[in-house]
Amino acid sequence: MAEAYIVDAARTAVGKRGGALAQVHSADLAAHSISALVQRTGVDPGAVDDVILGCCDTIGSQAGDVARTAWLVAGLPDHVPGVTIDRQCGSSQQAVHFAAQGVMSGTQDLVVAGGVQNMSAIPISAAMLVGQQYGFSTPFAESPGWAKRYGDVEVSQFNSAEMIAEKWDLSREEMEAYALASHERARTAIAEGRFTGEIVPFPLADGAVFDTDQCPRETSLEKMAGLDPLAPGGRITAAVASQICDGSSAMLIASEQAVKDHGLTPRARIVHLSVRGDDPVWMLTGPIAATQHALAKSGLSVDDIDLFECNEAFASVVLAWMKETGAPHEKVNVNGGGIALGHPIGATGTRLMTTLLNELERTGGRYGLQTMCEGGGQANVTIIERL
């Protein structure tokens, strides 16, 4: 099968809720990463076959196929199309998969894959709430077919995170210790400039330039212990959950022929890509079986992987995943994760992959594996090899 290569990657710094990027139109937010990607690679934008962006809650500034709009806002050629996809939290990781599959199939040579989300402007689940205002059914509760299959059970990421903590016997204290490590790792990464090469500074309306992730906090176990749980008697608090935030990210995926024709220097090869489903009520357990499947399919073991990125939707998700897969914490989310750096849903997949790529280069690692839990009980897995 033909190879698919990651030529380069770029992202904005992640803005906290109500922070530096809160007032930025989503199309302009995505256009910024796309423009930087084109400039960094020096590729002829007219040679790009497609633009695939992940985005959830595609209403308001994110409606109307924001991938197409962002490309045009960036001032790039009219004839290049764009498509917006929604695989919930894994949307932009899936964008990379679709881009790579287009290249591997021989039907495409150059594809921009990425994602965008302005969660300050358009709150999480806004599309569902808008639908309810107009009298439309919710995705789960009012479906007779769903009720027949799964019963009258509330489908909620918060419920899932709590269920996982209980099933894998994860104490609140254990999860808070993990969350604190995420913040400490992120602050260290920022202080050492590990993200500098991947972040594209964003000029703000007031003349300032935004170039540093805003979400990491100065916190402590004592502060975390004082928070109320999200559910009475529960173990999950805001301290062990990913942060609502804003950002965009983009990658250029190329075929071997495009690399030769355009004089490109790829930074990584895509070794494996897959997506699996799990129980949608449990929802967030998907990465466990998906990772096991990916390793078996690729012929690699946990020991072969130098770095892992497992999205920190909640601390319980990553802790359970590490227990089941054997991935050691010293190789997982080494620069912090969504608890500290935020989770701009549609943009997170390629944000994580951008960071994974840069960290493999910084440390000299060979293989990196990325996975993330997604709505509907799904999980993508991508394995890349640094070149």
UniProtKB/TrEMBL annotation:
Q: Which domain of life is it from?
A: Bacteria
Query: What Enzyme Commission number(s) does the record list for this chain?
Result: 2.3.1.9
GO terms, molecular function: acetyl-CoA C-acetyltransferase activity
The record's CDD domains line, in alphabetical order, gives: thiolase
Residue stretches making up the Thiolase C-terminal domain: 265-386
Entry-linked InterPro entries: Thiolase (IPR002155), Thiolase-like (IPR016039), Thiolase_C (IPR020617), Thiolase_CS (IPR020613), Thiolase_N (IPR020616)
Keyword terms, alphabetized: Acyltransferase, Transferase
List of catalytic residues: 89 (acyl-thioester intermediate), 343 (proton acceptor), 373 (proton acceptor)
Ranges where the Thiolase N-terminal domain occurs: 5-257
Give me the segments passing through the membrane. none
Q: By its UniProt entry, which Pfam families does this protein fall under?
A: Thiolase_C, Thiolase_N
Report the family membership: Belongs to the thiolase-like superfamily. Thiolase family.
Q: Which PANTHER family match?
A: ACETYL-COA C-ACYLTRANSFERASE, BLR7806 PROTEIN
This chain belongs to the protein called Acetyl-CoA C-acetyltransferase
- Recorded source organism is Nocardioides faecalis
